[in-house]
Design goal:
63 residues, mainly alpha, 3 helices, 57% helix, 0% strand, globular
């Protein structure tokens, strides 16, 4: 399975939803984990990585 943006579990660009589908977790848990990791790392690296993933991760072609 490829890591792609999710269209069915999309809130903001489908990044966390795509990661959740890729590892088989609930999208809500991935979003909470991402926010907590971003907060505890002074927020800037998490925001920067998310912005980079918006442009790097391919779109999910199957809907």
């Amino acid at each position: 399975m490829r890591l792609t943006k999710s269209k069915k579990n999309s809130m903001f660009f489908g990044i966390c939803g795509g990661i959740a589908e890729w590892i088989g977790w609930d999208p809500t848990l991935v979003r909470i984990a991402y926010v907590l990791a971003s907060i505890f790392s002074a927020a800037f690296p998490g925001i920067l990585i998310y912005i980079m993933l918006i442009f790097i991760m391919p779109d999910d072609d199957k809907v």
